[in-house]
Design a protein that fits this description.
By secondary structure, the protein is mainly α. The protein folds into four domains: 88 residues, no CATH class; 119 residues, no CATH class; 139 residues, no CATH class; 46 residues, no CATH class. It contains 16 helices and six strands. A hairpin with a 4-residue loop joins strand 3 and strand 4.
Length: 407
């Protein structure tokens, strides 16, 4: 029978296993329900961040859920592509009308201002990314994007005015819609020979900014700055031959030839042979448009000849890349290209098929969506996406957005 103490111990101890089983079951139930909720919450936050970074506007509930599902399934890039797909997302237009417009606009003016109106340069960048046109043709293609005919309140396209593009922006025309923004031949639209076309470099906006006045060196400098992410000071190489430096460059500025030998030659020895590609291009202030005179070197190439009469005299648009040797070989020039040619389009091919061009576009896309600088691993990934997927910038933006979606 046992003592009274033993009987009490048995009576109080008996219910313990049952209570612990109840508590354990309750705890397991909480864990079972809480774990999926926490995981789903993370993916939903990541989907929201991707959408916000790409479009700048909040997603609809349906789009957010669809993006979340793709992330849960391990397809974060697919979620990002959904966010910028106008067929799947009614708010995708913000990626094209706002994000990409702000991405491209600083390239179209010397001040590198993001506040300039939409123009043929920025519209062509938007269209190329939307239509997945290989981005290494940006500086060479006979291409311009224009508003479709018949759009209400939009003036006709003109090579002598930006009103057409300002109207597109003022009326908030959806640039994600291929029915609104269409690809066209730049040479046909502007009435110039195809040999005078070099992608965005020969758009009206670029010509007005970089062919106006001066000696056309601005076009080269800003193209390298905007699309190779290097300014001339970074590319200065005093070891290159000086035989193509024009007459307008003094060999003894201020009476001191050391300045020329230790500084001026570093930029001009490489720049002047390549700027010769634009010898037939100019900006006509009276007409308000770019002009192209095949076979006739523009007078600006021959100005200030008395500065050094034995300097190079430009006779045609033959260009050569002296930077394929020396320190600037690190820019990664394509071995499949000859490194010289005639006209701006072939120069554009030379620049846009360099490793520096690919890295520059990848870096700028990351900056746009992640608002900071990529580390080397992320940058290498983005460059691999760009060069490995036929220079598809839409893919680069999608991958970049996943790199800063949080965890």
């Amino acid at each position: 029978m046992g003592s009274t103490y033993e009987r009490k111990q048995r009576n109080t101890a008996a219910p313990c296993p049952a209570r612990w089983r109840e508590r354990l079951a309750a705890a397991l139930a909480v864990l079972c329900f809480a774990a999926p909720a926490a995981a789903g919450d993370l993916e939903r936050k990541q989907a929201r961040r991707i959408h916000d970074r790409l479009t700048g506007v909040p997603p609809t509930a349906a789009v957010l859920s669809a993006m979340e599902d793709r992330i849960v399934a391990g397809d974060a890039v697919g979620a990002a592509l959904l966010a910028i797909d106008p067929a799947s997302n009614p708010r995708a237009s913000s990626f094209y009308n706002v994000t990409l417009k702000n991405f491209a606009t600083p390239w179209t003016n010397e001040a590198q201002s993001v506040f300039d109106p939409l123009n043929d340069y920025s519209a062509t960048v938007i269209g190329m990314i939307r239509d997945e046109v290989p981005f290494n043709t940006l500086l060479s293609a006979d291409l311009v994007y224009v508003g479709a005919g018949g759009l209400s309140g939009v003036s006709a396209y003109s090579p002598a005015s930006n009103a057409h593009y300002e109207d597109l922006e003022a009326r908030n025309i959806d640039l994600s819609d291929p029915a609104n923004l269409v690809a066209d031949s730049q040479s046909l639209r502007n009435g110039i020979p195809a040999a005078g076309v070099a992608g965005v470099m020969t758009t009206r906006a670029a010509a007005q900014a970089f062919f106006i006045d001066g000696t056309n060196r601005a076009m080269f400098r800003f193209t390298v700055l905007n699309h190779l992410c290097n300014d001339l000071e970074q590319l200065k190489d005093t070891t290159r031959p000086a035989d193509r430096i024009r007459q307008d460059v003094s060999r003894s500025p201020g009476g001191d030839s050391r300045i020329y030998l230790n500084s001026c030659i570093g930029c001009h020895a490489g720049m002047d042979p390549m700027t010769q590609a634009f010898a037939y291009h100019d900006w006509d202030k009276t007409q308000g448009r770019m002009v192209y005179t095949p076979g006739q070197v523009r007078p600006k190439y021959l100005i200030n000849a008395d500065n050094f009469e034995y300097g190079y005299v430009t006779t045609d648009d033959r260009w050569d890349n002296y930077w394929r040797a020396g320190q600037n070989a690190v820019l990664g020039w394509s071995a499949s290209l000859p490194g010289g040619g005639n006209g701006a389009a072939s120069l554009g091919e030379e620049l846009a098929n360099s490793q520096a061009f690919a890295a520059c576009q990848a870096r700028k896309a990351y900056r746009t969506v992640c608002l900071n600088e990529p580390d080397q691993a992320r940058l290498d990934t983005l460059v691999g996406v760009l060069t490995g997927q036929n220079y598809n910038m839409k893919q680069v933006f999608a991958v970049a957005a996943t790199q800063c979606m949080g965890n």
